[in-house]
Specification:
Length: 401
Protein backbone atom coordinates (compact mmCIF):
# COMPACT_ATOMS: atom_id res chain seq x y z
CA UNK A 1 0.00 0.00 0.00
CA UNK A 2 1.04 3.59 -0.57
CA UNK A 3 2.64 4.54 2.78
CA UNK A 4 1.48 8.15 2.35
CA UNK A 5 -2.12 7.01 2.88
CA UNK A 6 -1.34 6.55 6.56
CA UNK A 7 -0.63 10.28 6.85
CA UNK A 8 -4.13 11.30 5.79
CA UNK A 9 -6.36 12.80 8.46
CA UNK A 10 -9.92 11.48 8.83
CA UNK A 11 -12.24 13.52 6.60
CA UNK A 12 -14.38 16.02 8.56
CA UNK A 13 -17.62 14.13 7.93
CA UNK A 14 -16.06 10.89 9.17
CA UNK A 15 -15.02 12.74 12.32
CA UNK A 16 -18.56 14.09 12.59
CA UNK A 17 -19.97 10.57 12.32
CA UNK A 18 -17.65 9.46 15.12
CA UNK A 19 -18.59 12.48 17.24
CA UNK A 20 -22.27 11.62 16.96
CA UNK A 21 -21.89 7.93 17.82
CA UNK A 22 -24.18 7.16 20.73
CA UNK A 23 -26.13 10.43 20.36
CA UNK A 24 -29.90 9.95 20.23
CA UNK A 25 -31.40 12.95 18.38
CA UNK A 26 -34.66 14.37 19.72
CA UNK A 27 -37.31 12.16 18.02
CA UNK A 28 -39.96 14.86 18.37
CA UNK A 29 -38.18 17.02 15.81
CA UNK A 30 -37.45 16.18 12.20
CA UNK A 31 -33.72 16.15 11.38
CA UNK A 32 -32.23 19.24 9.75
CA UNK A 33 -28.64 19.19 8.51
CA UNK A 34 -26.55 22.32 8.10
CA UNK A 35 -23.43 20.19 8.08
CA UNK A 36 -22.66 19.46 4.42
CA UNK A 37 -22.18 22.13 1.74
CA UNK A 38 -24.28 20.36 -0.87
CA UNK A 39 -26.59 22.67 -2.87
CA UNK A 40 -30.28 21.84 -2.41
CA UNK A 41 -31.90 24.39 -4.71
CA UNK A 42 -33.62 22.88 -7.74
CA UNK A 43 -31.53 22.12 -10.82
CA UNK A 44 -32.81 24.33 -13.68
CA UNK A 45 -34.98 22.45 -16.15
CA UNK A 46 -33.05 23.63 -19.21
CA UNK A 47 -29.87 22.00 -17.84
CA UNK A 48 -31.71 18.74 -17.22
CA UNK A 49 -33.11 18.88 -20.76
CA UNK A 50 -29.66 19.52 -22.26
CA UNK A 51 -28.25 16.54 -20.35
CA UNK A 52 -31.05 14.21 -21.40
CA UNK A 53 -31.11 15.43 -24.98
CA UNK A 54 -27.53 14.32 -25.64
CA UNK A 55 -27.86 10.83 -24.18
CA UNK A 56 -29.11 9.31 -27.44
CA UNK A 57 -25.86 9.99 -29.31
CA UNK A 58 -23.39 11.18 -26.71
CA UNK A 59 -22.39 7.82 -25.26
CA UNK A 60 -21.23 6.13 -28.44
CA UNK A 61 -17.58 7.26 -28.37
CA UNK A 62 -14.73 8.02 -25.98
CA UNK A 63 -14.60 11.72 -25.07
CA UNK A 64 -11.33 13.66 -25.47
CA UNK A 65 -9.53 14.51 -22.23
CA UNK A 66 -9.08 18.09 -23.41
CA UNK A 67 -12.81 18.46 -24.01
CA UNK A 68 -14.38 19.60 -27.25
CA UNK A 69 -13.40 22.95 -28.81
CA UNK A 70 -17.01 24.07 -28.33
CA UNK A 71 -16.90 23.38 -24.58
CA UNK A 72 -13.55 25.10 -24.09
CA UNK A 73 -14.77 28.12 -26.07
CA UNK A 74 -17.93 28.29 -23.97
CA UNK A 75 -15.83 28.34 -20.80
CA UNK A 76 -13.53 31.02 -22.22
CA UNK A 77 -16.54 33.13 -23.23
CA UNK A 78 -17.88 32.92 -19.68
CA UNK A 79 -14.52 34.09 -18.29
CA UNK A 80 -14.65 37.08 -20.63
CA UNK A 81 -18.18 38.00 -19.59
CA UNK A 82 -17.67 37.42 -15.87
CA UNK A 83 -14.16 38.75 -15.30
CA UNK A 84 -13.28 40.67 -18.45
CA UNK A 85 -10.26 38.44 -19.10
CA UNK A 86 -9.33 36.86 -22.43
CA UNK A 87 -7.89 33.36 -22.61
CA UNK A 88 -7.07 31.10 -25.56
CA UNK A 89 -9.59 28.24 -25.33
CA UNK A 90 -7.23 25.88 -27.13
CA UNK A 91 -4.29 26.30 -24.72
CA UNK A 92 -5.54 28.01 -21.55
CA UNK A 93 -8.78 26.16 -20.70
CA UNK A 94 -9.28 22.56 -19.61
CA UNK A 95 -12.63 20.99 -18.59
CA UNK A 96 -12.52 18.96 -15.37
CA UNK A 97 -14.87 16.67 -13.47
CA UNK A 98 -15.67 19.23 -10.79
CA UNK A 99 -13.20 21.39 -8.91
CA UNK A 100 -12.58 18.81 -6.16
CA UNK A 101 -10.83 16.22 -8.32
CA UNK A 102 -8.97 18.94 -10.19
CA UNK A 103 -7.65 20.53 -7.00
CA UNK A 104 -6.34 17.11 -5.98
CA UNK A 105 -4.87 16.23 -9.37
CA UNK A 106 -3.18 19.60 -9.79
CA UNK A 107 -0.91 18.95 -6.81
CA UNK A 108 0.12 15.63 -8.34
CA UNK A 109 1.07 17.53 -11.50
CA UNK A 110 2.88 20.46 -9.91
CA UNK A 111 4.75 19.06 -6.90
CA UNK A 112 8.28 17.78 -7.41
CA UNK A 113 8.69 15.47 -4.43
CA UNK A 114 12.37 14.99 -5.23
CA UNK A 115 13.11 18.55 -4.13
CA UNK A 116 14.05 18.69 -0.43
CA UNK A 117 11.36 20.12 1.80
CA UNK A 118 8.64 20.26 -0.88
CA UNK A 119 5.89 22.42 0.65
CA UNK A 120 2.34 23.42 -0.22
CA UNK A 121 0.83 26.47 1.47
CA UNK A 122 -2.89 26.95 2.14
CA UNK A 123 -5.16 28.95 4.47
CA UNK A 124 -6.23 27.61 7.86
CA UNK A 125 -9.18 26.81 8.19
CA UNK A 126 -9.31 25.22 4.77
CA UNK A 127 -11.00 22.83 2.34
CA UNK A 128 -9.61 19.44 3.34
CA UNK A 129 -8.75 18.35 -0.22
CA UNK A 130 -5.78 20.74 -0.12
CA UNK A 131 -4.16 18.76 2.67
CA UNK A 132 -4.91 15.34 1.18
CA UNK A 133 -3.59 16.38 -2.22
CA UNK A 134 -0.42 17.72 -0.61
CA UNK A 135 0.28 14.61 1.43
CA UNK A 136 -0.28 12.19 -1.46
CA UNK A 137 1.92 14.32 -3.71
CA UNK A 138 4.75 13.74 -1.24
CA UNK A 139 4.88 17.31 0.08
CA UNK A 140 4.33 18.89 3.49
CA UNK A 141 1.48 21.33 4.13
CA UNK A 142 2.08 24.73 5.71
CA UNK A 143 -1.09 26.27 7.14
CA UNK A 144 -1.58 30.03 7.18
CA UNK A 145 -4.01 31.16 9.90
CA UNK A 146 -6.67 33.70 9.05
CA UNK A 147 -7.12 37.00 10.87
CA UNK A 148 -10.64 37.35 12.34
CA UNK A 149 -10.07 41.09 12.73
CA UNK A 150 -9.58 41.42 8.95
CA UNK A 151 -12.59 39.46 7.76
CA UNK A 152 -10.70 36.17 8.13
CA UNK A 153 -8.02 37.17 5.62
CA UNK A 154 -5.05 34.73 5.46
CA UNK A 155 -1.94 36.24 7.03
CA UNK A 156 0.27 35.63 3.99
CA UNK A 157 2.81 38.25 5.09
CA UNK A 158 3.57 36.27 8.25
CA UNK A 159 4.77 33.17 6.40
CA UNK A 160 8.56 32.93 6.92
CA UNK A 161 10.82 33.41 3.92
CA UNK A 162 12.32 29.99 4.60
CA UNK A 163 8.89 28.44 4.02
CA UNK A 164 8.29 30.41 0.82
CA UNK A 165 11.71 29.30 -0.44
CA UNK A 166 10.63 25.64 -0.45
CA UNK A 167 7.00 26.24 -1.47
CA UNK A 168 5.92 24.77 -4.80
CA UNK A 169 2.15 25.36 -4.70
CA UNK A 170 -0.22 27.74 -2.92
CA UNK A 171 -3.93 27.05 -2.63
CA UNK A 172 -6.09 30.15 -2.47
CA UNK A 173 -9.81 29.85 -1.70
CA UNK A 174 -11.74 33.02 -2.53
CA UNK A 175 -14.58 33.23 -1.66
CA UNK A 176 -13.38 31.15 1.23
CA UNK A 177 -14.62 27.93 2.74
CA UNK A 178 -15.64 28.14 5.59
CA UNK A 179 -15.35 31.89 6.19
CA UNK A 180 -16.86 33.33 2.99
CA UNK A 181 -14.10 35.95 2.82
CA UNK A 182 -13.03 37.40 -0.54
CA UNK A 183 -9.36 38.17 -1.17
CA UNK A 184 -8.73 41.82 -2.15
CA UNK A 185 -6.35 43.01 -4.86
CA UNK A 186 -3.57 43.98 -2.43
CA UNK A 187 -3.32 40.40 -1.17
CA UNK A 188 -3.19 39.10 -4.73
CA UNK A 189 -0.38 41.57 -5.45
CA UNK A 190 1.59 40.21 -2.50
CA UNK A 191 1.12 36.59 -3.59
CA UNK A 192 2.15 37.38 -7.16
CA UNK A 193 5.30 39.12 -5.92
CA UNK A 194 6.12 36.11 -3.74
CA UNK A 195 5.47 33.76 -6.67
CA UNK A 196 7.85 35.78 -8.86
CA UNK A 197 10.51 35.61 -6.16
CA UNK A 198 10.18 31.93 -5.31
CA UNK A 199 8.66 30.33 -8.40
CA UNK A 200 5.64 28.63 -6.84
CA UNK A 201 2.32 27.98 -8.59
CA UNK A 202 -0.92 29.57 -7.35
CA UNK A 203 -4.15 27.57 -7.60
CA UNK A 204 -7.19 29.79 -7.08
CA UNK A 205 -10.23 27.81 -5.93
CA UNK A 206 -13.26 29.90 -6.98
CA UNK A 207 -16.16 27.46 -6.80
CA UNK A 208 -18.26 29.87 -4.67
CA UNK A 209 -17.70 32.92 -6.87
CA UNK A 210 -21.32 33.31 -8.01
CA UNK A 211 -22.97 33.32 -4.57
CA UNK A 212 -22.28 36.71 -3.00
CA UNK A 213 -23.99 39.34 -0.86
CA UNK A 214 -22.26 42.59 -1.80
CA UNK A 215 -23.01 44.75 -4.83
CA UNK A 216 -19.65 43.95 -6.46
CA UNK A 217 -18.97 40.34 -7.49
CA UNK A 218 -15.92 38.67 -5.94
CA UNK A 219 -12.55 39.35 -7.50
CA UNK A 220 -11.11 36.32 -9.31
CA UNK A 221 -7.47 35.27 -9.58
CA UNK A 222 -7.18 35.78 -13.34
CA UNK A 223 -9.01 39.08 -13.01
CA UNK A 224 -6.56 40.23 -10.31
CA UNK A 225 -3.61 39.21 -12.49
CA UNK A 226 -4.98 41.13 -15.48
CA UNK A 227 -5.54 44.25 -13.37
CA UNK A 228 -1.92 44.04 -12.25
CA UNK A 229 -0.57 43.68 -15.79
CA UNK A 230 0.00 39.91 -15.66
CA UNK A 231 -2.11 38.93 -18.66
CA UNK A 232 0.01 35.84 -19.40
CA UNK A 233 -1.18 34.42 -16.04
CA UNK A 234 2.26 32.92 -15.39
CA UNK A 235 2.27 30.32 -12.61
CA UNK A 236 -1.45 30.92 -12.01
CA UNK A 237 -4.54 28.81 -12.63
CA UNK A 238 -8.10 29.25 -11.47
CA UNK A 239 -10.53 26.41 -10.85
CA UNK A 240 -14.30 26.74 -10.91
CA UNK A 241 -17.36 24.54 -10.99
CA UNK A 242 -21.04 24.43 -11.89
CA UNK A 243 -22.02 22.65 -8.66
CA UNK A 244 -22.83 25.73 -6.57
CA UNK A 245 -23.43 28.17 -9.43
CA UNK A 246 -26.04 26.04 -11.18
CA UNK A 247 -27.12 23.55 -8.47
CA UNK A 248 -25.74 20.51 -10.28
CA UNK A 249 -23.28 18.86 -7.85
CA UNK A 250 -24.11 15.44 -9.29
CA UNK A 251 -22.96 16.48 -12.78
CA UNK A 252 -19.33 16.88 -11.62
CA UNK A 253 -18.45 19.61 -14.08
CA UNK A 254 -16.03 22.50 -13.97
CA UNK A 255 -12.92 23.85 -15.68
CA UNK A 256 -9.39 25.10 -15.04
CA UNK A 257 -7.93 28.13 -16.82
CA UNK A 258 -4.74 30.18 -16.78
CA UNK A 259 -1.05 29.66 -17.54
CA UNK A 260 -0.77 27.76 -20.85
CA UNK A 261 2.33 25.85 -19.74
CA UNK A 262 0.61 24.64 -16.58
CA UNK A 263 -2.50 23.67 -18.55
CA UNK A 264 -0.32 21.70 -20.98
CA UNK A 265 1.30 19.75 -18.15
CA UNK A 266 -2.05 19.23 -16.45
CA UNK A 267 -3.54 17.85 -19.66
CA UNK A 268 -0.64 15.39 -19.95
CA UNK A 269 -1.28 14.16 -16.40
CA UNK A 270 -5.02 13.89 -17.02
CA UNK A 271 -4.53 11.98 -20.26
CA UNK A 272 -3.02 9.16 -18.21
CA UNK A 273 -5.34 9.71 -15.27
CA UNK A 274 -8.39 9.11 -17.47
CA UNK A 275 -10.41 12.17 -16.46
CA UNK A 276 -12.54 13.01 -19.50
CA UNK A 277 -15.96 14.62 -19.36
CA UNK A 278 -18.76 12.61 -20.98
CA UNK A 279 -20.54 14.23 -23.95
CA UNK A 280 -23.94 14.47 -22.20
CA UNK A 281 -22.37 16.30 -19.26
CA UNK A 282 -20.42 18.52 -21.66
CA UNK A 283 -23.63 19.44 -23.50
CA UNK A 284 -25.40 20.31 -20.24
CA UNK A 285 -22.33 22.24 -19.08
CA UNK A 286 -22.30 24.39 -22.20
CA UNK A 287 -25.95 25.21 -21.63
CA UNK A 288 -25.27 26.12 -17.99
CA UNK A 289 -22.19 28.29 -18.66
CA UNK A 290 -24.11 30.14 -21.40
CA UNK A 291 -26.98 31.29 -19.19
CA UNK A 292 -26.88 33.84 -16.37
CA UNK A 293 -30.57 34.21 -15.58
CA UNK A 294 -30.67 31.05 -13.47
CA UNK A 295 -27.52 32.15 -11.64
CA UNK A 296 -29.11 35.47 -10.75
CA UNK A 297 -32.22 33.66 -9.47
CA UNK A 298 -30.05 31.34 -7.41
CA UNK A 299 -28.12 34.26 -5.91
CA UNK A 300 -31.40 36.02 -5.08
CA UNK A 301 -32.61 32.94 -3.18
CA UNK A 302 -29.42 32.86 -1.12
CA UNK A 303 -29.58 36.58 -0.40
CA UNK A 304 -33.17 36.33 0.81
CA UNK A 305 -32.31 33.28 2.93
CA UNK A 306 -29.26 34.83 4.58
CA UNK A 307 -31.15 38.09 5.17
CA UNK A 308 -33.75 36.12 7.11
CA UNK A 309 -31.49 33.70 9.00
CA UNK A 310 -28.43 35.79 9.91
CA UNK A 311 -30.18 38.42 12.09
CA UNK A 312 -32.05 35.68 13.97
CA UNK A 313 -28.82 33.85 14.85
CA UNK A 314 -26.97 37.12 15.53
CA UNK A 315 -29.29 37.66 18.52
CA UNK A 316 -27.72 34.71 20.34
CA UNK A 317 -24.22 34.21 18.91
CA UNK A 318 -21.35 36.01 17.20
CA UNK A 319 -22.14 35.61 13.50
CA UNK A 320 -22.12 37.97 10.54
CA UNK A 321 -23.17 38.02 6.90
CA UNK A 322 -20.19 36.74 4.88
CA UNK A 323 -18.84 38.35 1.72
CA UNK A 324 -19.86 35.31 -0.31
CA UNK A 325 -20.45 31.51 -0.36
CA UNK A 326 -23.29 29.80 1.49
CA UNK A 327 -21.83 29.28 4.97
CA UNK A 328 -22.22 31.04 8.29
CA UNK A 329 -19.02 30.84 10.35
CA UNK A 330 -20.31 31.37 13.88
CA UNK A 331 -18.60 31.58 17.25
CA UNK A 332 -19.87 29.19 19.91
CA UNK A 333 -21.30 31.09 22.93
CA UNK A 334 -19.21 31.24 26.10
CA UNK A 335 -21.57 28.83 27.87
CA UNK A 336 -19.84 26.00 25.97
CA UNK A 337 -16.36 27.16 27.04
CA UNK A 338 -15.15 27.23 23.46
CA UNK A 339 -15.98 23.59 22.72
CA UNK A 340 -17.41 23.45 19.22
CA UNK A 341 -17.71 19.64 19.49
CA UNK A 342 -19.78 19.79 22.69
CA UNK A 343 -21.99 22.40 21.07
CA UNK A 344 -22.56 20.22 17.99
CA UNK A 345 -23.29 17.05 20.00
CA UNK A 346 -25.73 18.73 22.36
CA UNK A 347 -27.49 20.58 19.54
CA UNK A 348 -28.08 17.31 17.69
CA UNK A 349 -29.29 15.51 20.82
CA UNK A 350 -31.67 18.23 21.97
CA UNK A 351 -32.85 19.88 18.74
CA UNK A 352 -31.95 17.43 15.94
CA UNK A 353 -29.90 20.00 13.99
CA UNK A 354 -26.48 19.12 12.56
CA UNK A 355 -23.66 21.67 12.31
CA UNK A 356 -19.97 21.05 11.60
CA UNK A 357 -17.40 21.84 14.33
CA UNK A 358 -14.96 24.45 13.06
CA UNK A 359 -11.98 22.60 14.55
CA UNK A 360 -12.59 19.81 12.03
CA UNK A 361 -11.82 22.25 9.21
CA UNK A 362 -8.48 23.45 10.57
CA UNK A 363 -5.20 22.20 11.97
CA UNK A 364 -3.57 23.21 15.22
CA UNK A 365 -0.89 25.89 14.94
CA UNK A 366 1.17 25.11 17.98
CA UNK A 367 -1.41 24.71 20.73
CA UNK A 368 -4.19 26.60 18.95
CA UNK A 369 -6.64 25.36 16.34
CA UNK A 370 -8.03 28.47 14.55
CA UNK A 371 -11.35 26.73 13.95
CA UNK A 372 -11.80 25.85 17.63
CA UNK A 373 -14.86 27.46 19.16
CA UNK A 374 -16.64 27.99 15.86
CA UNK A 375 -19.17 26.03 13.84
CA UNK A 376 -19.88 26.06 10.12
CA UNK A 377 -23.52 26.18 9.05
CA UNK A 378 -24.32 25.45 5.42
CA UNK A 379 -27.52 27.29 4.48
CA UNK A 380 -28.19 25.14 1.43
CA UNK A 381 -31.75 23.95 2.06
CA UNK A 382 -34.89 25.96 1.32
CA UNK A 383 -35.41 29.13 3.36
CA UNK A 384 -38.18 27.67 5.55
CA UNK A 385 -36.00 24.75 6.62
CA UNK A 386 -32.99 26.98 7.34
CA UNK A 387 -35.21 29.35 9.35
CA UNK A 388 -36.56 26.44 11.38
CA UNK A 389 -32.99 25.30 12.07
CA UNK A 390 -32.02 28.84 13.13
CA UNK A 391 -35.02 29.06 15.48
CA UNK A 392 -34.03 25.75 17.08
CA UNK A 393 -30.42 26.88 17.48
CA UNK A 394 -31.59 30.14 19.08
CA UNK A 395 -33.83 28.22 21.49
CA UNK A 396 -30.96 25.83 22.27
CA UNK A 397 -28.60 28.67 23.14
CA UNK A 398 -31.18 30.64 25.17
CA UNK A 399 -31.99 27.54 27.21
CA UNK A 400 -28.31 27.23 28.17
CA UNK A 401 -27.54 30.90 28.74
Amino acid sequence: MNPLLSRLQPYPFERLRQLFEGVAPNPALRPISLGIGEPKHATPRFIQDALAGDLATGLASYPPTAGSPALRTTCADWLQRRYGVAVDPSTQVLPVLGSREALFALAQTVVDRARPGATVVCPNPFYQIYEGATVLAGAAPHFVPVDPARNFAPRWAEVPEAVWARTQLVYVCSPGNPTGAVMPLDEWRLLFELSDRHGFVIASDECYSEIYFRDEPPLGGLEAAARLGRSDFRRLVMLTSLSKRSNVPGMRSGFVAGDAELIKAFLLYRTYHGSAMSPPVAAASMAAWSDEAHVQDNRRLYREKFAAVTPLLAQVMDVHLPDAAFYLWARVPDAWAGSDTDFARELLAQYNVTVLPGSYLARADGADNPGQGRVRMALVAETAECLEAAERIAAFIRART
